Amino acid sequence: MKLTSVTGEVISVSADDLLGNCVPSALYARLNRLGEGTYGVVHRARHTKTGETVALKSVRLFEQDKGEGIPITALREISILKSLRHKNVVNVLEVAVGDALDEIYMVMEYCEQDLANIFDVAQIQFTPSEVKCLAIQLFEGLEYIHRQGIIHRDLKMSNLLLNRSGILKLADFGMAREEAGDMTPQVVTLWYRAPEILLGSRQYDLSVDLWSAGCVLAELVTSQPLLPGKDESGEMNLICGLIGAPSETTWSGFRLLPWASKYQPPSQAILRTKEDLPTRFKGERPGLVRLLSELLQYNPRKRLTAYEVLEHRYFKEAPAAQDPGLLPTFKEARNEVTLSAPLRQAKRESLLFDENDLLSQVEAKRRRRS
Question: Which InterPro entries does this one have (predicted)?
Answer without folding.
Answer: CDK, Kinase-like_dom_sf, Prot_kinase_dom, Protein_kinase_ATP_BS, Ser/Thr_kinase_AS
